[in-house]
Design brief:
This protein has about 425 residues and is mostly beta strands. The strands form ten sheets. The chain has a five-stranded antiparallel beta sheet with strand order 1-26-25-24-23, covered by helices on one side. A four-stranded antiparallel beta sheet has the order 2-29-28-27, with no helix packed on it. A four-stranded antiparallel beta sheet has the order 3-4-5-6, with no helix packed on it. The two termini are about 20 Å apart.
Length: about 425
Amino acid sequence: MRLNLAAVIALCALFCGAALADSLNVRLVGHFDTGDHTNDVHVSSGYAYVADHISLRVINVSTPSSPFEVGFFDMTDFAYNLYVSGIYAYVANAYGGLRIIDISTPSSPSEVGFFNTEDEANDVYVSGNYVYVTDIDGYLYIIDTSTPSAPSEVGRFDTVGWGFSVCVSDDYAYVVYGYYGLRIIDISTPTAPFEAGFFDTGGYAYGVYISSDFAYVADGVNGLRIIDVFDPTSPSEVGFYDTGGLARSIYVLGDYAYMTDGYDGFRIIDVSDPTSPTEVGFYETGGYARGIYVLGDHAYVAVCGDGDGLYILDISYFTGIEECNASKPEDIAISAYPNPFNSAVTISVNCHSGEGRNPEGGVEVEIFDIAGRIVYEMPVGNGAPVPSSNGRGNRAPTEIVWQPDDNIGSGVYLVRAKIGDRHAPEAIITKRVVYLK
């Protein structure tokens, strides 16, 4: 479902009881003012490494509510983006190219190697001994850093436009090039990369993240675009969401896409159904939200402009329920319609449990609010098996209709169905629903 800005504001009003709100399901727990142009952040081992104008800042975030700086390193030019792997921070340093910084002692980072790019280095990704660097002249560089003090180019691919972001998965590098969209580069032979496929996102593609068979693209004013890249030679869009601002960076973890949206701050999009992404949380940072990193219960956001610096946001609101402890056979499914809903929702559970038998104990449906409190439960009878062509006993779909009581507020709810004995279920499946009162 695609929501425009007015719809998002209306949804926030329903959730929060106000016409306008500065947050939804997200809480600011810490902030460090870098005092300069904060671009990107990467978190590792209790430290946040921040690309901040012409320096690398090292912030201790072991206590998220009290971040403090322990070290810094002055770069030769603008620090656009960075990637931390092991004891090294790899910085895309504009006309300074790629800089490799030893961070084994966080209080005293030091440069150990560099590689000069043809034009301004903009983004960097590390996979094994190779570092992938984009520049503003359209190049993707593949650099061997097995010896960090002597990085060497093994291959490059020349395309068009400004290479804003790169993400590597298996044998492919996924690069976004502004108006030129998503380009998929085959890097199976690092010395001879070539373009395997591309997709015109329609906007100005700033950021990309690969999760499972999907490329999630932060597409500027076009918001979030979700591209099926199961076949890299023929990518296709399966869903989109208008974030309302200028989608810049993206980090995908589990069922959620965490995004920076320029002056519209930080947004959380539920992508459990890639064909129908839905916003479930946000935080208005005030300044221009640019870089993003997610680890555990926190999102780390690099903000430049008014109120610039590192923002540490508590996103544990989305981790209050353990969604699945038991197995989930691929042919057990749960659906909800309509979703979102405003008066009642029909929940349907389809399952089978093996060769011509029903699971002991049937199906039990429970509904939780986003904080993990149960708001509804209904045990459902066994029903009769329906024979199928493969001889297995398939259950007839089990359906219930949930009509929230008057004391149930608008918001995101999690439907959980237990298949079999409630104390030792054969499977647990879940589905999120949105209630608009």
